[in-house]
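Entry:
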Amino acid sequence: MGTGLGLAMAITGATMLVLACVGLPFLIASWTGRQLLAAGIAAQAVIESMADTGVTINGQPLVSFVLGVRTQDGQVHRVTHRQSLPRLPMGMVVPGAVVPVKVDPQRRDRVRIDWASWRPAPYGA
């Protein structure tokens, strides 16, 4: 009986360790993303390119974006950024589209696309 209990505890411990290793980076990224949206500096970015990473989070694809970010002082810098793409704007978010972003004031390479503030360009614009 003791051996069976020990084996069950070892399997449970190993399973918890694997889940923590897989899930923890997503939880940290989610938390830091929310912090950046709340405290980051508003800017605009042009999507230069985008690629599917093959990962889906809550039914949304995780996309690798290359963004040309223009900060409020007019400086432009290129950032590679991975973020989930909501279903609603999925067909309208293409290279050349302009999206609102929040930029970390301490590290300009850390950005977050602000999907809640995003509005598609009017037809013909």
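Residues 2-39 form the longest helix (38 residues).
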